[in-house]
Amino acid sequence: MSNLEKRMTKFRSIFWHRRDLRIEDNIGLFEASQKSRNLIGVYILDPNLLDLKKTTSEAKNWFLGESLLELQKNWGKRGSRLLILIGDPIKLIPKLAELIKAECIYWNKNIEPYEITRDKKIIAQLEKDKRKVYTFLDQLIVNPKTIKTNNENPYKVYGPFYRKWIDIINKTQLLNDNSLKILLTPKRFQGLNDNEILLLKNSDLNYSIIRESDPIYDLISSNRFKNNNLCPCKPGESESKKQLKSFIHSGSINSYNEARDIPYLESTSNLSAALSQGTISCRALWNGAQLSKNIATNKYQYNSIDTWIKELAWREFYQNALINFPELEKGPYRKKWLNFPWQNRSDWLKSWSNGLTGIPIIDAAMRQLKYSGWMHNRCRMIVASFLVKDLLIDWRWGENFFMRNLVDGDLASNNGGWQWSASSGMDPKPMRIFNPFSQASKFDKNGHYIRKWIPELSHISTADLLSGEILSSERKGYPKPIINHKYQTSIFKELYANLN
């Protein structure tokens, strides 16, 4: 063993996993492993991020729990371990560092306001304790500091943002084959010795290795999410890689341009939760797209791949928006929406939430969310427009409902999507209303999606299913429409026109 290797083995560090639940292609973990092979992983179950009434869902906790189980095994295979702690990271990270005598702490930055504020306090305490802190940007392809207008202002419109985003990537490729460099983590780490493990067990850190008998497991496992078999998002680093490979090699990415809008086809990548929790890197998705371009055989396929890449850019646009305008977490970008006279009828909200509005495409989408923990993106836009512009319910209620039910709930993307649908965000076309019946006719023209999620309507003719004009004698318990779309949207337009 060389002197450098001896020093790296002696020099102990902690890597704090957050939204990067993977070993490979993890910038912060890679950098930590280059400085120290005496490396301990930690994940902290922060109660502020596990609140089923505000910040997360049973489906998301299931995805998190199963991903942690795999991640913990992967750390074990490398000779170290991933510690799972419960509580306030502001207290736990410095305490763990002191207990195991870690000199350096590494992590990848998050972009949400709560986490930014929390991390500043942790850094201050660690530096006070004479420990070194190293943080990295891992969850975005382009650093937000570099993506500014010519006037050095943040972008507020997606189109110009995308053009700058793709230009930066093309100019800063790390390899000549148009791919982004994938970072390979060493196969072996050195972990805690027996005495240190005993010390941890006798401490008050609330340390766990997540066994099925452990209360943590019940909190974040499939025990709380019964329909995980219906969820198209599969937890864990290995499953994420499989899903990306399948999306590319099955040809789904080559027909994405049109197929992405047909909810019944299930032709999207289903990697939204993986990106949100970091079981796969954004660089891996970019590289997958480039691989697809290399084997594309016609312009249609090439354009479909570009359309998928633009969805990656939308994700980064919304994250940049939240970084530069953190006030978006609490309210609308367009301030006049603070004065909108919402009706906020609780009975209509309940009908919408339970998929019982009497509007088939709306109810099918809401039931997909209720039972699978996920909803097709086209349907997310349809039900969001309906809640705001038909039911006249505050978009923030819908935003919160999605976060409490989605497996891929992500503050930036969820907020950006809802503000786009509500016309309260940065979208330059503020007045956009989706007609649920024309949307159904265009994107579910055979009624397959509606019949799948509303089986009591499987006997209804396609024409009646799409129009919603179903005879009372044929409803079999399915409710009549709670509103008239044309009438309600006329009210919305009038209220909007009178906003100051």
Characterise the protein shown here.
- It is a single chain.
- This protein is mainly α and 500 residues long.
- The protein has three domains: 3-140 and 194-201, 3-Layer(aba) Sandwich (Rossmann fold), CATH 3.40.50; 142-179 and 237-324, Serine Threonine Protein Phosphatase 5, Tetratricopeptide repeat (Alpha Horseshoe); 335-497, DNA Cyclobutane Dipyrimidine Photolyase, subunit A, domain 3 (Orthogonal Bundle), CATH 1.10.579.10.
- 49% of the residues lie in helices and 6% in strands.
- The protein contains 22 helices and five strands.
- It has helices spanning 3-10, 27-35, 58-77, 89-99, 113-128, 158-171, 194-201, 215-219, 237-249, 256-259, 272-277, 282-295, 299-324, 346-354, 360-372, 377-390, 395-403, 411-422, 436-443, 448-453, 462-467, 485-497; strands at residues 12-17, 38-45, 82-86, 104-108, 132-136.
- A five-stranded parallel sheet has the order 3-2-1-4-5, sandwiched between helices.
- β4 (104-108), α5 and β5 form a beta-alpha-beta unit.
- The radius of gyration is 24 Å and the shape is globular.
- It starts with a helix and ends with a helix.
- The relative contact order is 0.11.
